[in-house]
Design goal:
about 625 residues; alpha/beta; 5-stranded parallel β-sheet; 24 helices; elongated
Length: about 625
């Protein structure tokens, strides 16, 4: 196998060019086999195999710098830099990350995980190089989906002023996670079809090279080509802002890409190389269903179907069902997502009420302010975004929604630990960053029925309000406990005395498990379902302090700024005598791995919590 010859960075340069396509196929076969077992980002990686090979042939890593936007398409890059063995533990606790990580390899020059960042990071590396007198090449790869993010244009605006080389590779597969939307996608579709320009360019240049003084004529044409492009290629947006544009180039033609990259390196300014790729290339199911294979669970290679199909609904499914029902009851209910109609569960809402559904692309900041405008106009917007991605819109939540006290509902999916995607995707900060904002209200459901009730309550509340729920199977226990939701009021589930567990959302299920362990050792244990993290139920906390020796706050959020701190503040203000044990995620980043393993490692699993409580009770 040719892949056996790739043991470290640069080894691809020893492969005969006639064998490039064979190597590309071996890489695809390897990725399909491994990801079918471990799960991971398949579609984006299959589409970027030849592009990655061309970049590794062109660059001298790690001296040159290669930045991957988002980074979920970096698997081939990891293979070509000697990390083949790491795929056995891909995305597992203690194993290789599914994203670029500086601590993993010198060839990963910048950690990524969220979109639209690579141009900014690359521009910083270019300036650092120039200030220190370096001569290395810097390449930022960005997908067409990521170009819907405003940060990319902020970076392009600054990159346009460069008088030194900086290569931006636009990996254009017409997809972000779901199919791209909006004006940028339409513009790139037009560019993709502009083969007339490429054919004319190649014909003219090749003819002139063969005549005397032809090279000087070519150079003159290069200087005038901007005007020429305006005649042939629609828009030429990049050239208009001062960034040289090369392409489009076939993203599966390695020699052609290497040639264009070499041409790009001669340009002493920022240059975009527009590369056309096919997401999921080489694997039929991924080609037909690219969104499904963006982040795939383990699957059967023959059929492409999940190895372990889900038999129970997850919280996203519950949200999806509730939204379609709410949309039917109230024509003012509208839904907004940032390029994730499938991931957030809004696909059914989109199909049923297309005129009230808005996919704004990878643009969380715009999504929130757009929702604020919808609310100001008298509608009832629901913004469905993953917890880790909503971080990007903090200012918009504060400035555009909460200062005006606009009734925007935030449906925060993937709140808490999400597992295999690691630090950049763990939703463990939302309680903290949302709690700091005046006018914001925050709820978390204990089970699937409470998620339904909370969404209905949120849309009737007429205030900024967030409902945060975890990834994974929706808890079906405690169905008999379904008291009506009141603003800022907790729910008493068990009242026994001695120890009181005050649990938030997903931790109510854990609290039940803790209670059973404690009861076996003879302890009496009450459970309060917090329901609201803001406003916090002070009366419930004071009741717990009056009738229990130990209060235990439980949340799947970092300790700093979370629910436990609010409980402590209430106890301090009311001079309540009960002791408080705060159970939360330590104030640190949590790496990738199975969620159950991660909970045990950071001490928020039932057995560890019970042990901490028993130790505290012995004092």
């Amino acid at each position: 196998m040719l892949l056996d010859k790739i043991k470290g960075v640069g080894d691809i340069k020893n492969i005969n060019p006639s064998e490039y396509q064979e190597l590309a196929q071996e890489i695809r076969n390897f990725l399909i086999e491994k990801i079918s077992k471990t799960g991971g980002h398949l579609g984006s990686n299959l589409g970027a195999v030849e592009l990655t090979m061309a970049l590794h042939l062109f660059l001298d890593l790690p001296e040159d710098k290669l930045i991957w936007d988002v980074g979920h398409q970096s698997y081939t890059h990891k293979l070509l830099t000697g990390r083949r063995e790491g795929f056995e533990s891909l995305r597992k606790f203690g194993g290789m990350s599914g994203f670029p990580k500086r601590k993993e390899s010198d060839c990963d020059c910048f950690d990524t995980g969220h979109s639209s960042t690579s141009i900014s990071a690359g521009l910083g590396l270019v300036k650092a190089r120039d200030i220190q007198g370096g001569t290395n090449t810097v390449v930022s790869v960005i997908g067409d989906g990521s170009l819907t993010g405003g940060m990319a244009y902020e970076a392009l605006n600054n990159a346009a002023k460069l008088e030194t080389n900086f290569i931006i590779v636009l990996n254009d597969n017409n997809m972000s996670i779901s199919e791209n939307v909006g004006g940028v996608s339409k513009y790139l579709n037009n560019v993709r079809t502009a083969n007339a320009y490429l054919d004319i360019k190649e014909g003219v240049y090749n003819t002139l090279k063969d005549i005397p003084r032809g090279e000087k004529v070519v150079e003159s044409i290069r200087k005038a080509k901007s005007s020429f492009k305006h005649l042939v290629v629609p828009g030429m947006f990049f050239e208009d802002i001062g960034v040289t544009y090369l392409g489009p180039v076939d993203g599966h033609n390695i020699p052609e890409m290497v040639r264009v990259f070499q041409e790009a390196r001669r340009i002493r300014k920022a240059v975009i190389v527009h590369v056309i790729t096919q997401k999921g290339r080489g694997f039929g199911p991924a080609e037909r269903h690219p969104a499904r294979f963006h982040g795939a669970e383990p699957f059967d290679i023959e059929t492409g179907l999940p190895s372990k199909p889900r038999t129970t609904a997850n919280y996203t499914d519950v949200f999806s069902t509730v939204m379609t029902k709410l949309g039917a009851r109230d024509e003012k209910v509208v839904a907004i997502t940032a390029a994730m109609p499938d991931g957030t569960g809004l696909k059914r809402f989109r199909n049923m009420y297309p005129e009230r559904f808005f996919d704004v692309g990878i643009a969380e900041e715009h999504a929130v302010t757009f929702a604020a405008g919808l609310a100001a106009g008298g509608l009832k917007p629901v913004v469905a975004i993953y917890s880790s991605f909503l971080q990007r819109a903090y200012d918009q939540i504060l400035h555009d929604v909460c200062i005006q006290n606009l009734p925007v509902v935030f449906a925060i999916d993937r709140a808490g630990l999400v597992g295999s995607d690691g630090e950049t995707h763990q939703g463990i900060f939302d309680l903290s960053y949302l709690s700091s904002i005046p006018s914001m209200h925050i709820m978390a459901p204990k089970n699937k029925w409470e998620l339904s009730d909370m969404m209905k309550f949120a849309l009737s509340a007429d205030v900024p309000i967030a409902v945060r729920y975890p990834r994974g199977e929706a808890y079906a226990g405690l169905r008999e406990y379904r008291t009506p939701i009141e603003m800022g009021k907790a729910e008493l589930i068990y009242a026994e005395g001695e120890i009181c567990l005050l649990a938030v959302g997903s931790m109510v299920k854990t609290a039940e498990e803790v209670r059973e362990i404690l009861k076996e050792d003879g302890y009496k244990c009450s459970i309060i379902n917090a329901r609201f993290v803001k406003p916090v139920d002070e009366q419930a906390i004071c009741w717990a302090a009056k009738y229990h020796r130990l209060l235990v706050s439980m949340e799947e959020n970092v300790l700093s700024g979370g629910y436990g701190e609010k409980v402590r503040d209430v106890l301090d203000e009311r001079s309540a005598g009960a002791r408080l044990l705060q159970i939360a995620i330590p104030d640190e980043y949590v790496e990738h791995g199975n969620v159950d393993i991660l909970k045990k490692e950071i001490g928020i699993d039932a057995k560890t919590i019970a042990a901490k409580i028993k130790k505290e009770m012995e004092i």
